[in-house]
Amino acid sequence: MVKQENPAYGAWLLPWALAACDGPQSALDPAGHEAGLVAHLFWVMLVASGVIWLLVMGIAFYAARGRHTPWQPRRAGRFILVCGAIVPTLALAALLVFGLRLMPGLRAAGEGLRVAVQGEQFWWRVRYELPDGRAFATANEIRLPVGSRTEFLLTAQDVIHSFWVPNLGGKMDLIPGTTNRLVLEPTRTGTFRGVCAEFCGASHARMAFSVTVMEPSEFEAWAAAQIRPAAVGPVTGPGEGAALFLARGCAACHTVRGTGAAGRIGPDLTHLGGRETLAAGILPNTVANIDRFIRETREIKPGARMPSFGMLPEHESAAIAAWLGSLR
Amino acid sequence: MSTDEQDKALRREQEERLSRVWHTPPGWRYWSAVNNSEVGRWYTATAFAFFLFAGVLGLLMRAQLSVPENTLLPAGLYNQVFTLHGTAMMFLFAVPIFEAVAILILPTMLAARDLPFPRLSAFGYWCFLIGGVFVCGSIFFNAAPDGGWFMYPPLTTDPKLSGIGADIWLLGLSFIEVASIAAAVELIVGVLKCRPPGMRINTMPLYCWYVLIVGGMILFAFPPLIAGDILFELERLAGWPFFDPARGGDPLLWQHLFWIFGHPEVYIVFLPSIALLAMMVPTFARRPIVGYSWIVLAAVGTGFLSFGLWVHHMFTTGLPAISLGFFSAASEAVAIPTGVQIFVFVATMLAGRVVFSTPMLFAAGSLGIFVFGGLTGVMVAIAPFDWQAHDTYFVVAHLHYVLIGGMLMPLLAGAYYYVPLVMGRKLSDRLGRWVFWLMFCGFNIGFMPMHFTGLRGMPRRVFTYPGGIGWDWLNLISTVGAFIFASGLVLFTWDVLVGLRRRPYAPRNPWNAGTLEWLGPLPAPEYGVRSVPAIASRYPLWDQPDLMRDVDEGRCYLPDAEEGQRETMVTSVLDSHPVQCLRVPGNSFLPMICAVLVGASFIGTAFHFYWSSLVVGIAGMFAIMAWLWQGTAVIPEKDEKPVGLGLSLPLYVSGTKSVGWWAMFITLFGDMTAFASLVFSYFYFWTIHEVFPPRWPDGTPQGPGLLWPALAFCLLAGAWGAMLWARARNAAGSATGLRLGLAGAALLALGSASAMLWAPWQAGLTPTEHAYPASVWVLLGWAAAHLALGVVMQGYCLARSLGGKLTARWDIDIHNVVLYWHFAAVTGVVTLAVVALFPLLA
Asked: Which range (A103-117, B173-187, B634-648, B801-815) has the least confidence?
């Protein structure tokens, strides 16, 4: 798939370049209409650049070897005109037309489903607005139906962030005081990874999210489940965890719909157990990890606004974690 | 004694006198040196030291990223490291090294004994050293800036999210930017006014053209950042909400101001390195450059276009598609003049016969790397591709290909080429090949994989990354490459510091070059050129066969220093007719003292010691006035002196003939650019608000009213008129008229400045409430500060007149101050029109 750029580099470039395209966060492994167009643009530009690079190096090598008969200045002047001015102007004009004509397609309107994403230090506040008017809140996770254009409304609470799912398309900044629009159209199902792409503070590296592209029917079922308040699953002593969650002050910042917890400062945890990842895309979603994150929040995520709750007795944090993990 | 022996004896005496006059004192007084060869050496060494420091920071980052979830550096420290790496590379290495090298070699190219304002060079150097150590040193106290070298608010304006580091960045770098602008003014005036007779502007070496262009770019690019820094500090220290959306500000305004500076900055660091290639390629192709006017026009075009591209750093901020299309096209367009410059070099090699050498090896490597970086630049200029590549390691790879290929490699080529000129000895060719191949291979191993790391989704500025999503071994390879690259630089540093001393002196004109810098013997004597020749060609050493002998035998201009004064030639701007024999000031500690005081004032402000900063700042201003008093507009003991070849030149000229007038004129252009940026900010707020200016509760638009601005306007017009009158009275020989005019103008100016500040105050505009009143205050404050500075200048002229140093015959000061007042008047009138009349339209 990768076109070789020049023989000198090629010998060691080729093997890894061939393997270098796929991945859950790769712009060269498109799973969306927008990413596909841009990946295609990239390969075209790469081949063209490779050819141009080789030609320039070839001419320069010929000139620098000094074995040719020196050219007349008039001929050398014509060479500057042709190679320095005329050819680049034509090539760049062609590229500009080819590249910019993608822009209207990449910024087409959505088809009904709208997802409002607000960047926070260092997580994502997400609100779904379904075409039929139903809405629900979640965090750090995006699920999309395959084959339709979803419109994202992007803003930020504190500092500038940037919303980027490489497999689906380009990025767009989340800027306080502004709402930016981005439209993505996934073309195949799968689980991908998105990240914050604008430096946003100490844990910029710890600000990711999971993106799951589903069949429309599965998406519908998932959305319907999300709208419902929390249902406590069968774990040992679930009541204890819920009570501790409220008693230890977690509810001041977090919402768990269906309980008394209605805090707005931190992420909505209503269906935490059902999410792909934990703590904004940085830990596998297990009860042990929830427990660890409660106790070592700022060790795992430096600069997070949530303090580390290492002072809780171990059985209490474990109970809270078990309860949260059961919320699907 | 025969005539021949008399000649020899005379020549020896002349050389002794020249040596004595230009001698650099030993011991601790060595640091009082101001001449370009000493200051240039310190400047180069310091900038290179900052480069090595920033390089170590780069290696720390690579070490941290070598494996996923590494814990070598904690997040907070990593963020300081990458911020300081970018900041130091751009502000403490890339721009200063241009100025350092230019200060070193420009006078030799012009056969000048020094630049026109040696003490200004020294002042700039000391500012650079103090500011650089202050900014870099902060990391050892865990207090370095950590918001990225671009400092985007609100992350960096929010006191909860950013500490003292942001103030260190803003104030430390503003201080250094002032020094950069000072050096740019010095270099521009040097190129325009200190060329040898006959070196018309279209025969001057290409390096001089690039210095002129880059100097001009600095004057238009740095002031927007300084204006931005002022707004930024006002928000941080006083709560004026320029970037706070909750109070009518906009974080994107900073991005505009930063990138209006930041994109030209890339070309400011790139063009001087191309300039070095433009000197080397003809030498090694053994023929004059092909397409002299092509390359000059292309460089001017690059400089011009570079100011129209800044938005391509903001393609993902949600700007309208029409802007993206325009800036995509402009960004592609800049590739054309850049390509022309490269093809001029290739054409010159085709028209000549290339002698290969170590400098050319680096030049060839730079071509390969730079063209590659240019091509990825063409890619990211296409907005849809940039939406994927922006803020990823693809861009990290791209910018390092451009800067290392376009700036560092040509600079090293230049080092191999020019070290004999500066140090008298050549660097080792054998080690040079090792250095080159280590750097070239290490660089490509390090940065080539980053293109793919980025497209596989790795964002920039992350202190670590998860394993298993395809970045692990790409990063490991990059780290290995970075260390190989660094080993090449270590070898180079060793050769410069240690190896060089062991080698014999190079022969005269070791590369057989055609330009004037290679005129003299090696090592070069302290006074520089033995006598100043008249030039008739672009490559005088090739085309004027007796030149070296005539110069050596003192048969050209200024072969002597009879009066024990440092002297150099000043010529006319276009045709290089001799106009003056300029006495340049000698060694002094004053520039260092001034830099220390001004620097202490900036540093104190960063730590919120406002009163001590104010006191030290005022002391600094008095020190600067003491420097001006004894070192500028010095009245000579006679009107003119014979400078050789039957030519007699005045020792004192004023107005447009004098270098001081040109320096003032050029400085004020930079000042106007900063002012224009503030006006831009005002109208930027107008474009983002539906109602601007905001309304009072009763529904009328806010504003400073008309009465007080109108009064300020009348008083300002009076002050300006009084200055013109004072100059005219002085020319007519009336000292009383001059003094009355100055005093009256000062009173009127103070009245105007007071009315300017009273206007928003009496109208109840509170700058902390909204971006509108803050913008009004900052514009009026800027104008009032300019009037206040103008009053200081009027007081200085008054004192000079009373001290007998400003008269009808000796009138440099009044001409330069009137020139300042033209600009100050424009600033005041535009400010008043914007703040008072614009609300009427709205």
From this structure: A103-117
